[in-house]
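Notes, p. 3: input format for complexes.
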Amino acid sequence: MATTALIVAAGRGERLGGGVPKQFRPLGGKPVLRWAVEALIRHPAVRSTRVVIADGQRDKATEALDGLDVGELITGGAERADSVRAGLSAIDGDAVLVHDAARPFCPPAVIDRLLASLEFFDGAAPVLQVGDTLARAAATLGEPVDRTDLVRVQTPQAFRLGPLESAYELWKGPAPTDEATVLRAAGMKVAAVEGDPALEKLTSQADLERAQQWLAGCLTPRTGMGFDVHAFAGEGPIMLGGIKLPHTRGLAGHSDADVVLHAITDALLGAAGLGDIGEHFPPADSRWKGTDSSVFLAHAVNLVRERGALIDHVDCTIIAEEPKVGPHRAAMRTRIAEIAGLSVDQVSVKATTTEGLGFTGRGEGIAAQAVASIRMGFWAK
Ligand code: CTP
Ligand code: MG
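Output follows (381 residues plus cytidine-5'-triphosphate):
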C-alpha cells in the first residue's frame, strides 16, 4: 500500500501565542514541525511525506525542514480542512496519514495500528479514553455528560485516499476539525485504534511546557573536557576568555590564540562526541588565520544544540603566572556566556599558577582546561 504522510502546518497557533506559530517553536533543540515530520518520515510504511504550510511561512518551514525529503511545500488555506484539501489534491497513492504538525511525538506503534486497520476500514483514528468527569459549564457547572463511550480523537488518522477524497467532496457542513468526521458523515466506517498520550496536541502554552518537561526527562547527562596551550611570542595584547587584555607579550597561534575559548570549545565538542576543534577548524586552513575564537565556540555551541542537547554549564581553569586573571574574571564570564548563549551563572572562570614550576611557571605560555556539562536526548542524530 503506497502511503503518503500529509502534515498540516498552516495554522497560526493563536491559542498558544508567543508571536511565532507553535509549529515553529523550538522543542528540545528543533522546531515542533520537524519533530512531527521526522516521526512519520522514518516509519518504514511511509513512502512519501508532504507538508502543508501558510504562504507567509515558507522560509521558516524550509529552514525547519532542512535536509528532510518532503518535496514541494504545499500552500494551505484559512481553516485546517482547507489545508488538508490542498494537501490531498497534491498527492496520489493508495493511502494517506493526515497529521497535525502540532503533535510532535508520534510513536511508530500507533502508525502500525492505523495502517493495519485499513485492511478492513476506509479510515482509522487513534483515540484515548476520557478519564475526567465531563460536564457542560459556563460561569458555573451545568449538566454532567456521560463519559461512558466518549473518547478523545487524535491524529495521525489513516485513510484510503479515494474514499477520503470523495467524502470531502460530499461534505457540506462547517469546517470539520478532523477527517474521521468527514468520512463518517459520508456513511463510511472509521476504526478507533488505541492512541497515545505522547500524541497530545500542543494547543496552549501549558501543553508546550509539558512537552518540554517530558523531553527533559529523556535527557542523559554527559561531560566533556578540553585542554589547550599557547606559547608567548611577540608583543601583547592577548585574547583570553573572549576579551582583549593588555600584556607585555602576545600569544603565538594560528587564530587569535585564545586558550580559554579553545579549551571550552573542545569540552563542548567532547561532551557531544563531535570530535575536536582541530577537526572542525584545521590549523592548516588559511581561512582561520587570525580568526576571533568566538567563531569556534559559537560553532561548537550550534552543533551541540543541533543534536538536541542542552548545555548546562561550562567551567574552565586558566593556568598562568601572568597576567592576573582576577580583575578580568567577571568580564570573561559575561563574554563567554554571550558567545555561547548561556546565562553568566552557567559559566565559571578560575585561574591558578603552577608555583613557578613547568612551562607555565617559567612564563613560557598559558594553558587552559575546561569541562562542559550537557544533557543529550535519545533523538540525537
Ligand atoms: N492548521 C492548518 N491550516 C489551518 C489551521 C490549522 O494546517 N488553516 C494545522 C495547524 O498548523 C495544526 C493543526 O492544523 O498543526 C491543528 O490545528 P490547531 O491545533 O487548531 O492549530 P492552529 O490553528 O495553528 O492553532 P489555533 O487554533 O490556536 O490558532
Ligand atoms: Mg486552529
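The first helix runs from residue 32 to 41.
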